[in-house]
Specification:
two-stranded antiparallel ribbon; elongated; five-stranded antiparallel sheet; disordered C terminus; mainly alpha; 9 strands; Alpha-Beta Plaits
Amino acid sequence: GNKATVEKTVKELGNGSEVASTTDPYLTKSVSQDGSTAYSQVKYKVASADMEDSSKDALEEAVQDARDAGLTVEVGGDALQTTPHTGATEVIGIAVAAVVLVITFGSLIAAGLPLLTALIGVGIGIATITALNEALDLGSTTATLAMMIGLAVGIDYALFIVSRYRSELAEGREREEAAGRAVGTAGSAVVFAGLTVVIALVCLAVVDSPMLTKMGLAAGGTVVVAVLIALTMIPALLGFVGRKVTPEGHKAKAGKRRGRGKKGAKGEAAVPDAVTKPVDGESQPVGAAAKPNLGTRWARFVIRRPLPVLLLGVVGLGVTAVPALSLNLGLPDNGSSSTDTTERKAYDILSEKFGPGFNGPLMVVVDAKASDDPETAVAQVTGEIKGLDDVATVTPATFDKAGDTAVIQVVPSSKPNSTQTEDLVHSIRDTGADLKADTDATVTVTGTTAMNIDVSQKLTDALVPYLALVVGLAFILLMLVFRSILVPLKAALGFLLSVLGALGAVVAVFQWGWLADVFGVDQTGPIMSIMPIFMIGVVFGLAMDYEVFLVTRMREAYVHGEKPSDAVVTGFRHSARVVTAAAIIMIAVFSGFIGSSESMVKMIGFGLAVAVLFDAFVVRMTIVPAVLALLGRKAWWLPKWLDRIMPNVDVEGEKLHKVLDPVADAEPEATADDPQKTVHA
């Protein structure tokens, strides 16, 4: 009875308008040894991406008819690929970001601005990708990753500008001036941060992988949109909402400060008394009575114990990075799909009934045109392949019409993404090279499995050079910004530590299976070959963002006469809260994509979340102040000859401050740490 139903189903499958051919499993002997499972190959006249909906509907109808008749039927291949979904966790990630913004700003309006502009920016980016999808074949994964990165950087960039705007208001400035200064200072840092992300993503093209290049360009384009939105829409919205971004209590305090400011002799604008720059969004009066915030207390703790803190941070990240030594790269197949999809079910059934290697056969092409006896040459190659390790079956060679070129199908004993199958591909190629002298035949290996292995090897070879390129670029950019040798060196090495630590965590979860159930990992195996390089490109820009935002304030304080250790505390007092909020938002948004049904999106979301966690909280907030405390004044050393030839890069609007606040710049106020000290630039 089942045979008749199977034959009827195969016949129905062949009725599709775009179907080229179907195979009868009983004629092709495509039935498992126990007789419980059979498979039919349905070939279409067009690529899966070009299939009409009517063809997919006809396929689904035939499958459903067979199921109604009592058969278990699943569909592998690309024809009915399940559309990936991210699930509710993406929404949860955005909700967490909203909560963090509300806590940071204490105002629903201030919290809503970054979310609104980020969503608008992502909408523009996704709409552009969708419009170009058919022409460039970008794919759904590219759009999902662009959404992930666009949301994260869009919220963060807007957060920095809104936070600076609030600090300018707290100093008693009017709305227009506060918005202008915010864009001129924090906006400059946003441009720098966005530029570094875009450069790193565009540099993915040097790997010469079309998929990686498309992903990098699409994500980079989304970052450009996020920067433009932050620089244009945010100040426009700030002009609309005015002082509503500040909680009521702080508005009153700001009003009092404006009222009691000192008038100049000729009626100049009021100058507020006893107010520091509260970049964390809170006004903080100068003087010893000022209550130190959490950033200040943490910085002082690190400075008191720099060596133990440094060792703890470095050793901790080093231990986390150890699994990265076992990094094994590969490309996804249906075996890495979610267990509830039809393609994954088909993959598992074929593996169970026909062997793990059945899903990834190798196509061996023997070109014997130069051979005196092509048939003998092909037979010799076939015999040698049969004797190799990890070979399950070898089908008889199929010759072309000329009789001098043949194709041999080799089914490995191991699954397609295993190291044993990779070794078999190399063994077949080595065997062909050894036999060339005797047979004059050229042996090549192709097929999806072999191509995936080759692409993964290419990306593996490119990983270290790309990492070196990005670290070198980080060093040069930060040397221009901070005019120092040791500060950018420390930053670049810290970036390297956070990336390796994140890769180690990815290997532990997705390759080794640690906590796999917690993160919803159905199938462990090789890490997606494009994932490490893509992650490095994204994290590079984010790391530079945090480094610039934190250390620029430290450098500014040091240049204005503070001790190196005091400058570190000053930088943390002004910047730690915003950097912490930005990092938590990034982690929340990236973590939201861990719930995706697509393994590559899940893996990249996890990797980026862990990388930001390590880079922001372990490297920038712990290792950086510890190193600066140990180096002291040496941290800011730069050879005079290099200082003369290097261009001046103004990231935080230092020149703007000199123009707008010439008196304050020439005679800085006393600091909270030493109110009696007078310092001069």
